[in-house]
Design goal:
- The chain has 71 residues and is mainly alpha-helical.
- Helices cover 62% and strands 0% of the residues.
- The chain is built from 4 helices and no strands.
- The longest helix has 16 residues.
- The chain is globular and about 40 Å long.
């Protein structure tokens, strides 16, 4: 029941996201501009309901997004 309530809670800020900067750095995203841009992009995708606020989903999307941005 608690897990369902947490999952239903809307994500409206970076603090509400299932990932943070440390998670993205562990995935190889450098700190600084790229990290902030990626976090903000993820938040926008969650707010626009294109991504769910789930750790695995967000990490996969972040890796793909950075690969495109760095190409």
């Amino acid at each position: 029941a608690l897990t369902a309530l947490i999952a239903e809670r809307p994500c409206v800020t970076l603090k509400d996201m299932a990932v943070n900067g440390r998670d993205l750095m562990a995935e190889g995203i450098a700190s600084g501009k790229a990290l902030g841009e990626t976090l903000n992009w993820l938040l926008g995708e969650v707010l626009n309901e294109r991504l769910t606020n789930e750790r695995d989903v967000l990490l996969r999307a972040a890796r793909a997004h950075r690969a495109e941005a760095d190409a």
